[in-house]
Amino acid sequence: MGESLDGVKGKRVVFVTVGTTCFDALVKVVDSQEVKDELLRRGYTNLLIQMGRGSYLPTKSTGDDGSLAVDYFTFSSSIAEYLKSASLVISHAGSGSIFETMRLGKPLIVVVNEDLMDNHQSELAEELAERKHLYCARPPTLHLTIASMDLKSLVPYSPGDATPVAKLINRFLGFPED
Amino acid sequence: MEKNTSCSFSNLSSNLGISCFIAFIAIILVRVIYVIYGTGKPLSKRSPQQALSTLIVLGSGGHTAEMINLLLVLQKDRFTPRFYIAASTDNMSLQKAHVLENSWADSSGVKGISAEFMQIYRSREVGQSYVTSVWTTLVATVHALWLMIKIRPQVVLCNGPGTCFPLCVIAFIFKVIGIRWSSIFYVESIARVKKLSLSGLLLYKLQIADQFFVQWPQLQRKYPRAHYVGCLM
Fold this sequence. Notes:
The complex is a heterodimer of chains A (178) and B (233). With 178 residues, chain A is α/β, with parallel strands linked by helices. Chain A contains seven helices and six strands, in the order E-H-H-E-E-H-E-H-E-H-E-H-H. Chain A has one domain (2-172): Rossmann fold (3-Layer(aba) Sandwich), CATH 3.40.50.2000. In chain A, strands 3-2-1-4-5-6 form a six-stranded parallel β-sheet, with helices on both faces. Chain B is 49% helix and 13% strand. In chain B, helix 4 crosses helix 5 (164-177). Chain B has 233 residues and is an alpha/beta fold. In chain B, helix 6 links the parallel strand 5 and strand 6. The chains are: A alpha/beta (178), B alpha/beta (233). Chain A binds chain B through residues 19-20, 94-96, 99, 117, 120-121, 123-124, 126-127, 159-166, 168-176, 178, and chain B through 42-48, 52, 61-62, 65-66, 69-70, 72-75, 78, 92, 127, 155, 183, 185, 187, 189-195, 197, 210-211, 213, 215-216, 227, 229-233.
């Protein structure tokens, strides 16, 4: 899986995204000393958190003292650029975030929001984790996943294709095959 | 003597009324059976010039992204005019549809867009209790009826949001009454791997969708009338 190295002195950014949701549990745990220490240990230098509609505010840090540099924002019209410059993405289990990240070939840890009713999102995360396209974690176990993850073992995801559906729809409606 | 004739007249008219009512119910039943029998039967051959008016139901989050992915591989001159419906509380979806339509208009140099964008009241918000949802679904259904009477689409494309259920039911009723025969295509969301969404389950069980697509093999095994088409994203 591609890991981007920013031109500036081997900056390795971990980008955290919760999409348009409120996922304080993830933002909180990512801001915890346990997780930050683990990220430092694995060689990451920066932590950027897109916190969405959450109310928990992380603590910013310049990282000048050798600690992890931490910054955050609420929303962006497009997170594509942040994803592209990240070395690791930690995301909520929304399908949009998951597929956007995988299409860019970025290593991904998906954290399922246990507070959501009818947690249908977890099915997708678990299935993709089983197929080794990403890692799946819960907020309390995130630091363990970070400690033990082997990003080279992740299998790249081949983008899907909507043409089979289009063919069937056209055939049903009586349109000629292209 | 007058009383007798007026009694027998009212008897006659109430008998007539009851007969009409029974006949009406019978006709409806026959039509329903006819529609259910016809649902899922491919249409006869048509030329690419015989475009079909298409209703596209958009849902928040990943739903719209998946739908746009599908629209990109459909020949847009076969599916025109296009009507996009999104929930009134969903701000992003119609914007994304606008962007798509504008890019198509730009590339083909065609003046004027053959697309309309509408909003509909939601049947149920995420996390809303199922009890209050009954009322909001009824309101949404009446609004949906109003929109559907204006659009009368020949093709309905939907992929899971609750907004699509009232629209599909109305499309089915239009088939029964004979207002418009439509082909209803339902693509279950990629996020549904082992269980169908509520909209999907209802449309599958009630056999309202003409073609029902799933993106994971586990669902195809569980719901054999569904077509497994692999991941769209």
